[in-house]
Amino acid sequence: MLLKERILEKFNTGEIENLGFKRICEVFEAKSNIEKNILRDIIDTLENEGKIVYKSGRFVLFENSGLIKGVLRGNERGFAFLISDNGDYFIPPKSLHGALHGDTVIIKKALSSRGSSDEGEVEKIISRGVTKLT
Protein backbone atom coordinates (compact mmCIF):
# COMPACT_ATOMS: atom_id res chain seq x y z
CA MET A 1 0.00 0.00 0.00
CA LEU A 2 1.34 3.42 -0.93
CA LEU A 3 1.96 5.97 1.80
CA LYS A 4 -0.64 8.30 0.27
CA GLU A 5 -3.28 5.57 0.54
CA ARG A 6 -2.26 4.81 4.15
CA ILE A 7 -2.58 8.48 5.08
CA LEU A 8 -6.00 8.76 3.46
CA GLU A 9 -7.09 5.53 5.20
CA LYS A 10 -6.04 6.96 8.59
CA PHE A 11 -8.10 10.07 7.84
CA ASN A 12 -11.10 7.88 6.96
CA THR A 13 -10.80 5.90 10.19
CA GLY A 14 -10.47 9.13 12.18
CA GLU A 15 -7.06 8.26 13.54
CA ILE A 16 -5.39 11.44 12.26
CA GLU A 17 -8.41 13.61 11.51
CA ASN A 18 -8.48 16.96 13.35
CA LEU A 19 -4.75 16.84 13.99
CA GLY A 20 -2.11 19.39 13.09
CA PHE A 21 0.92 18.52 11.00
CA LYS A 22 3.17 18.06 14.03
CA ARG A 23 0.85 15.42 15.55
CA ILE A 24 0.48 13.67 12.18
CA CYS A 25 4.28 13.39 12.04
CA GLU A 26 4.22 11.80 15.49
CA VAL A 27 1.59 9.23 14.42
CA PHE A 28 3.69 8.25 11.37
CA GLU A 29 6.90 8.44 13.42
CA ALA A 30 8.43 10.89 10.95
CA LYS A 31 11.46 12.23 12.78
CA SER A 32 13.94 13.33 10.09
CA ASN A 33 13.43 16.34 7.87
CA ILE A 34 13.33 14.10 4.80
CA GLU A 35 10.48 12.02 6.28
CA LYS A 36 8.60 15.16 7.32
CA ASN A 37 9.03 16.69 3.85
CA ILE A 38 7.69 13.54 2.18
CA LEU A 39 4.72 13.53 4.56
CA ARG A 40 4.12 17.25 3.93
CA ASP A 41 4.21 16.70 0.14
CA ILE A 42 1.62 13.92 0.35
CA ILE A 43 -0.66 15.95 2.63
CA ASP A 44 -0.33 18.95 0.28
CA THR A 45 -1.28 16.69 -2.64
CA LEU A 46 -4.35 15.38 -0.81
CA GLU A 47 -5.31 18.95 0.02
CA ASN A 48 -4.84 20.11 -3.59
CA GLU A 49 -7.00 17.20 -4.77
CA GLY A 50 -9.74 18.36 -2.41
CA LYS A 51 -9.75 15.19 -0.31
CA ILE A 52 -8.67 16.89 2.91
CA VAL A 53 -8.90 20.50 4.09
CA TYR A 54 -6.73 22.57 6.41
CA LYS A 55 -9.15 24.29 8.75
CA SER A 56 -8.39 26.13 12.00
CA GLY A 57 -4.88 24.69 12.26
CA ARG A 58 -5.98 21.09 11.70
CA PHE A 59 -6.51 18.75 8.78
CA VAL A 60 -9.97 17.23 8.26
CA LEU A 61 -11.64 15.15 5.58
CA PHE A 62 -13.43 17.30 3.05
CA GLU A 63 -16.74 15.54 3.77
CA ASN A 64 -16.51 16.51 7.45
CA SER A 65 -15.43 20.11 6.87
CA GLY A 66 -18.81 21.67 6.10
CA LEU A 67 -17.41 23.03 2.84
CA ILE A 68 -18.93 22.52 -0.62
CA LYS A 69 -17.19 21.67 -3.88
CA GLY A 70 -18.56 22.49 -7.32
CA VAL A 71 -18.12 24.32 -10.60
CA LEU A 72 -18.63 28.06 -11.00
CA ARG A 73 -20.99 29.43 -13.62
CA GLY A 74 -20.15 33.10 -14.07
CA ASN A 75 -22.33 36.00 -15.12
CA GLU A 76 -21.26 39.05 -17.15
CA ARG A 77 -22.37 41.27 -14.24
CA GLY A 78 -19.60 39.87 -12.03
CA PHE A 79 -21.36 37.36 -9.80
CA ALA A 80 -21.44 33.59 -10.18
CA PHE A 81 -23.30 30.48 -9.09
CA LEU A 82 -21.70 27.36 -7.69
CA ILE A 83 -23.26 24.27 -9.21
CA SER A 84 -22.82 21.29 -6.87
CA ASP A 85 -24.46 18.03 -5.88
CA ASN A 86 -25.77 19.84 -2.77
CA GLY A 87 -27.60 22.50 -4.78
CA ASP A 88 -26.72 25.87 -6.25
CA TYR A 89 -25.19 28.76 -4.32
CA PHE A 90 -24.94 32.44 -5.20
CA ILE A 91 -21.41 33.87 -5.09
CA PRO A 92 -21.28 37.70 -5.06
CA PRO A 93 -18.38 39.43 -6.86
CA LYS A 94 -16.57 40.32 -3.62
CA SER A 95 -16.56 36.63 -2.59
CA LEU A 96 -15.07 35.15 -5.78
CA HIS A 97 -11.45 35.79 -4.70
CA GLY A 98 -10.09 35.40 -8.23
CA ALA A 99 -12.21 32.42 -9.26
CA LEU A 100 -13.61 32.50 -12.80
CA HIS A 101 -16.35 30.83 -14.85
CA GLY A 102 -15.71 27.10 -15.18
CA ASP A 103 -13.33 26.81 -12.22
CA THR A 104 -13.77 23.96 -9.77
CA VAL A 105 -13.77 25.54 -6.33
CA ILE A 106 -14.46 24.93 -2.67
CA ILE A 107 -16.79 27.37 -0.93
CA LYS A 108 -18.02 27.95 2.57
CA LYS A 109 -21.63 28.91 3.17
CA ALA A 110 -22.23 32.51 4.14
CA LEU A 111 -25.36 34.30 5.27
CA SER A 112 -26.58 36.79 2.72
CA SER A 113 -27.67 40.31 3.60
CA ARG A 114 -31.26 39.09 3.49
CA GLY A 115 -30.54 36.23 5.91
CA SER A 116 -30.67 33.24 3.54
CA SER A 117 -27.96 30.58 3.52
CA ASP A 118 -27.85 30.04 -0.24
CA GLU A 119 -24.84 32.32 -0.59
CA GLY A 120 -21.19 31.31 -0.45
CA GLU A 121 -17.62 32.52 -0.49
CA VAL A 122 -14.77 30.88 -2.43
CA GLU A 123 -12.25 29.32 -0.05
CA LYS A 124 -10.00 27.57 -2.58
CA ILE A 125 -9.67 27.11 -6.32
CA ILE A 126 -9.11 23.41 -7.06
CA SER A 127 -8.67 23.66 -10.83
CA ARG A 128 -9.12 26.23 -13.53
CA GLY A 129 -11.85 25.78 -16.11
CA VAL A 130 -10.08 27.87 -18.73
CA THR A 131 -6.39 27.20 -19.14
CA LYS A 132 -5.71 29.30 -22.27
CA LEU A 133 -6.59 32.90 -22.92
CA THR A 134 -6.41 34.45 -26.35
Report a brief summary of the structure.
This protein is an alpha+beta fold. The protein contains three helices and seven strands.
What does this molecule look like?
The chain is of the alpha+beta class and 134 residues long. It is built from 3 helices and 7 strands, in the order H-H-H-E-E-E-E-E-E-E. The strands form 2 sheets. The chain has a 5-stranded antiparallel beta sheet with strand order 5-4-3-6-7, with no helix packed on it. Strands 1-2 form a two-stranded antiparallel sheet. The N and C termini lie far apart (44 Å).
**Order of SSEs, N→C?**
HHHEEEEEEE
N-to-C span: 44 Å
Number of E-state strands: 7
Helix content: 25-40%
- Work out the radius of gyration: 17 Å
Largest sheet: 5 strands, antiparallel
The chain-level mean pLDDT equals 88
Morphology: elongated
Low-confidence stretches: none
